[in-house]
Amino acid sequence: MQSKHPSQHSITSLAAAGVAAIALLMAGCSSGGSGSGANPRPSSGNIDTPVTPGPSASGETTPTAKVTEGTGNTVVATGNAISEIGKTIQDAPLPLLPTQAREGAGDVVIKTGRAVGSLGAGVRDGLGQIGSVDNPVGVTVASTSNVVHDVGEALISGGDLVRGLGTEKLAPLSPVTTPVGGLVRHVGIAVHDSSGKLHSVLSEGPVAQVTNSVSKVIVPLTSKVTDGTQTLGAGTHLGEPANGLLYKVGNTVAAGGSMISNTHAPVVSPLGGVVTEAGKTVAAAGGLLNGQDHGGGNPLGGLLNNLPLAKLGGGGEGGSAGGALGPVTSLLAPVTGLVGGLKQGAHDSQDGSGEHKTLQLPLIGGLLR
């Protein structure tokens, strides 16, 4: 076996040393940066989403969390709609308003919409993820720093708006608008810059301990409340039909929101997203009453069939039960005669006293299908 030449050993050593130096340099750069934890501090740029959720706890959110998440998404959609209105203001022809003032007014509305969206996103990514993140309350609380950030930007734009009122044809007002606008702008900068420190206070130290403790109480509490409502819904036989009804109503509302969005009409079109998310929230609310998935078919069929009136049949003693519904049956006879294909309203059931008839309400059920 041939040994390596001394020069080869030196070249190999130099290469190894170079690789080690590069690795140390990269490690130093990564440790000296801002880092990427579960709750990164906001930067000076625009922040459209709140704090990143923490590590997954169970991977599945609770029914209460799904409703809360839908509420947060509705607020986010509202913020987006407000921002779109701000863009419309910027593009609107307003001859009496100076250009700088019009742009400032539009910016104020846009930044206000972002603040509303940050609030909704904080609810969505925190309390809307109960059961899926370790500290949902902490995520929501810490995300309020993003709201403060956006409010500060809105105030800065407000200062530009006031300054702009003293330009062009309204230049004689500049001795008043310039200092006032500058003051408003400075206040906005102070609020904007405080968002970073606020985030550190809300996501670390004593506040984080408090929110973590509150989360440990809220998560099992919401689960117990949901279990109670679902048990009540199952016991009264109202959970499944109510869930199906809310599901159908929610989907109908959401579909209407999509139609509004597709109109692409100024001011009106952005509201479609709000309607859509509100419909989704209504559809998810049925899970609070029913542990199963949404009911299909007629959402009120089970509800109507469980009413005491629906259990009165024609086979009782002395025919008294049938007599109780005789007038109703006579009134519905002309209508049911005109509607073809309806199912018969009675089916056989067997109990300890013999054969009985259970009267359904096919006309109402058919209309609701």
Could you give the topology of this structure?
Layout: H1 6-32, H2 63-91, H3 99-125, H4 136-142, H5 144-164, H6 174-203, H7 205-236, H8 239-262, H9 271-285, H10 301-305, H11 320-324, H12 326-338, E1 346-351, E2 354-359, H13 362-368
Antiparallel strand pairs: 1-2
Helix pairs in contact: 2-3, 2-9, 3-4, 3-5, 4-6, 4-7, 5-6, 8-9
Tell me what you see in this structure:
With 369 residues, the protein is mainly alpha-helical. The protein has 3 domains: 63-225, no CATH class; 237-299; 302-326 and 343-368, no CATH class. Helices cover 66% and strands 3% of the residues. The chain contains 13 helices and 2 strands, in the order ααααααααααααββα. A two-stranded antiparallel ribbon has the order 1-2. α3 runs antiparallel to α4 (136-142) and α4 runs antiparallel to α6 (174-203).
